[in-house]
């Protein structure tokens, strides 16, 4: 689960300077966020999509949230893994890199995932001074969306799902229209089979149980609908072949918060995996547009 943000389009010289500044800041703060040997700070889930956006002149930052990917995995006793905790983590990360802070231009935010997406959307709604626009890629929107089994298992009655394995393979594979190749799937599964496997599993379960998805989506809808319209322009880029999330709740949510949307046919739960190039085109077009609701 992840989300990423980008700066307004920069020329190559400006982008190189900004990237170097971000790298130095990460080192100074000794942050355990994943940094690839590429000119980006990247969440692994977004590798392909971010490469496409780089070719369009964007500087992208994509941290793994605490407990996920290559980021540190504190025990639930010290990190709550609920929406406020994730919002604070995102705020602290942006502060550490001076992104969207006073004297700097607001960021644009792209979100996906079941729970971290809700935290990022609430953060955006609460900080219109830091977040200019928000793009949502196949995340739960409204009360019509439910958790898939690999996440819902932890909420079974009488604690029957407590301690279940983190079935990341099933979660990543069965929501998509197209198969994810073994190498890519290995990247998704890596945190759950390596030396931090037990801590990653605990974080997975804690995230799935700390927050009611219904309460989370209701809070997001209310926050972005406040006063009839949220402060930010919002667009949904949606894969309509999502095996987990249906189209109808998405359309209703867009109407409720006056968001615009682009729908990609024959694209599944992770558009950034199925068709990164097409997804990047929609995201880039939104960031460059006036953002009017169609």
3D structure, described in words:
With 294 residues, the protein is α/β, with parallel strands linked by helices. The chain has twelve helices and six strands. It has helices spanning 12-29, 47-54, 83-96, 116-126, 149-152, 168-173, 182-189, 197-210, 213-225, 247-257, 271-274, 276-288; strands at 3-6, 60-61, 107-111, 131-137, 233-239, 260-264. A six-stranded mixed β-sheet has the order 2-1-3-4-5-6, with helices on both faces. Helix 2 crosses helix 12. The radius of gyration is 18 Å and the shape is globular.
> Uncertain segments of ≥5 residues (pLDDT<50)?
1-7, 29-42
Give me the count of strands: 6
Number of helices: 12
* Proportion of residues in helical segments: 40-55%
**What portion of the residues fall into strands of 2 or more residues?**
5-15%
Mean pLDDT over all positions: 82
Largest sheet: 6 strands, mixed
Helix/strand order, N-terminal first: EHHEHEHEHHHHHEHEHH
Query: Can you tell me the overall shape?
Result: globular
Radius of gyration: 18 Å
User: What structural class do you assign from the helix and strand content?
Assistant: alpha/beta
For the termini, the CA-CA separation is 29 Å
Strand order of the largest sheet: 2-1-3-4-5-6
How would you summarize this macromolecular structure in one to three sentences?
By secondary structure, the protein is an alpha/beta fold. Helix content is 42%, strand content 10%. It contains twelve helices and six strands.
